[in-house]
Structure formats: structure tokens, C-alpha cells
Amino acid sequence: MQSRSRLLAWLAVVTLCCFAIRPSLAQPPTAPRPAAPPSLLDAQLSLTAKYKQALDSLDFAGQQAALREMRQVTAANAAEPKFYTVAELDFMLLDLSRRDAFTAEQQEAARQQQSNRGLGMHFAGQGNLAMTIESRRTALEAAQQLYGDQAHATLDAQLLFALSLSESETEPQPDGYPSVQLAQAVLARLENLRLTDSLQYREALRAVMFIHINHRNYPDAAKLGESYLAACERAQLTATINYLDGLADVANVLNRDQRYAEARDVARKGLNRNFELTRQNGPSYLNLMHDYAYACIGLQDYAKVPQAYDTMLQIADQLPRFPPPRKLELLTEYQWLLKRTGDQRRLAEIERQIAELQTQLPPREPK
């Protein structure tokens, strides 16, 4: 089977997504259905988009307005599942309250701190690791000077810096990897602040998992992934893309560690859920299906793997802008499987699709 390539390079990093009230991949029904009332999750998603827009434009007033509105809505619907708790929103608003007392010079430094955070995201999207690390290091140092070590902005900057730093680390220092220490410190501070039910804490758990993956420490990565899933379950977020992605992450790590039976069980946990397949959750479902197929192949249990690849290809065909090279990988993996199982009729069809797709791709540059 070819080396495993996930959709992370294609998908933008989307922290918050849920399954509720999304357009289906299937054709729309002929008769309109009555719209369900928006949930607190949907309200938080909408306000998060406003907050991130204000963050990108360095608009402090807009950030504050979005967070205050989200706090009000969250407090009024406290019993519903939520991404952000009231306590976390208060924690985020505290940074903005501090800015109100800043001097003009400090206000400009705060804008520059957010600008460097955005630059880090930009360079990460371009694959420029050196500039990503430099931008995030600068953002972290500025946040520490402006807000101190315990602030939301500082912990956010520290987590992003640790993630990018881990990609550059080849050997641990005598006392371990600096990126692990930085990320673990974020977890410890959030625990001390009693914010273990916060979105930032869940993000930190997942970040430490990815850091361990970068260091090929798969046993610890799996433990952190399981902690992330448990945190989502405590927060009643099992019907969100966050949880589906978490299941895929854990299954993927277990596959890397050749713990195929465990990986298959984790993947089944997501695949057996009854939810409507949409353009939003389709990539996540495809990743999880791939983890399931990979685990079955590792166990030499091929019975349901062809059906899994047929489903993945069907999803790929319905997703807008699905990368042709990624589809070629799926087809090539399927070709390998069919040669092994001896399904000549299906093999001929898949090889036809491979040949057709190869004519649409630019020629590979010689190595």
C-alpha cells in the first residue's frame, strides 16, 4: 500500500464545525423541510466567524463585541452543548479589557502581536516552516510582555509556536523536546485555571498529540488523542466534526503504531454513528474511512475494504475541489487491493479510471 497521505494539506485548519443544519451531499429534497431552530453550537459558530474576521483585521472593538455577544448567548443557554464555556469567554475577554488600559504604544504592540500571529498562519499555509517559527516566536514574546504568562493570548501563541517548533526538532535535548515542554505547560496552566472544559484545553490536548506524532512517539500521541476524545465526550460534542476528526486522528496514530485492531475499533466508533453526510463533514468521514480500511489491511481482513474504497471514491467525487492527486492515491491503493483479492472486473474499471486521471495531471518532475 502506498504511503499514507491525508487531506491536511488541502483542508484549511477549521477549529469549529458541527453537523447540524448543513447542506447535504445528496440532491436537495423536492419539498422544503421546516428549518430547525439554531442551536447554541450554531450560534457560537456564527459568532466565532465574526470574531475571527475581527481578529484578521486587527479590530479590537469587533473582537470584543463578538465575544460579549457569544457570552450572552452562552449564558442564556447554559445547559446546551457548547464549544466555548462562559468561563472561557470571560478568560478571553480579560485580554481585551486589559487592552483598554494600554498606552498608545502598547495598543500598537498588541496589534503587531496579532499581526504576527496571522503571519504565522500565512507562512504555515505556504509551507514556510522557518518563517512560521519566527513569526510565532515573535508573537509569543510580545504576548508575554503585554499580558503575562497566564493570559489566553499568551497560551494561544505558545501552543502555536510549540506546534511549528516540533516540526523542526530532530533530536531531543537532555531534558526532552522544547516543544513538548511548551505545550505541556499550556495544559498545566489551563488546569490550574480550572479551564479543562474549555475549547483551548481541548486544542492543547490535540496539539500535544500532533507534537508527539512529529517526534514519532505514537504511544504517547494515542494517549493524548484519547484524552481529547474524552474531553469532547464530557462536553457533549460527539455530534461535531471536531469529534469525528479526533477519532480519525487516534485511529491514524494507532495504525502508525501497528495497533491495527484498536485502530479499527476506534474508526468503527465514528463510522457507525448515524449522521447526514455533508460537504462539511465529508472530508473527515473520508479520512476516518481510510483509517478503517488501513487497519483492516493491516489485519489482513479484506472483506469490507473494497466497499470502503468505493465509498471513499464516491465521497471524493461529490466534494468540490477534491485534489486529483489525492484521488489518484486512493485509486492506486484500491488497485493494489484488487490485485491482492483477485477481483478482475473491478480492477479493470479502477485501472481505466487511473489511466484517465493520469492524463489530466501534469507530468511529474524527474527526481
Number of helices: 15
SSE run:
HHHHHHHHHHHHHHH
Under the CATH scheme, the architecture of the largest domain is: Alpha Horseshoe
Low-confidence runs: 1-33
Radius of gyration: 22 Å
Just give the CATH class of the largest domain.
Answer: Mainly Alpha
Describe the global form.
Answer: globular
Give the beta-strand count: 0
- Quaternary status of these chains? single chain
How far the N terminus sits from the C terminus, by CA atoms, comes to: 21 Å
- Residue share in helices? 55-70%
Question: Can you give a write-up of this model?
Answer:
With 367 residues, the chain is mostly helical. It is built from 15 helices and no strands. Helix 6 (152-166) runs parallel beside helix 8 (199-214), helix 11 runs antiparallel to helix 12 (282-298) and helix 12 (282-298) runs antiparallel to helix 13 (305-318). InterPro entries: TPR-like_helical_dom_sf (IPR011990). Residues 1-26 form the signal peptide.
Quick description:
By secondary structure, this protein is mainly alpha-helical. Helices cover 68% and strands 0% of the residues. The N terminus is likely disordered.
Helix and strand arrangement:
Blueprint: H1 40-56, H2 60-76, H3 86-100, H4 104-126, H5 129-147, H6 152-166, H7 178-192, H8 199-214, H9 218-234, H10 241-256, H11 260-271, H12 282-298, H13 305-318, H14 324-341, H15 344-360
Helix pairs in contact: 1-2, 2-3, 4-5, 5-6, 6-7, 6-8, 7-8, 8-9, 9-10, 10-11, 10-12, 11-12, 12-13, 13-14, 14-15
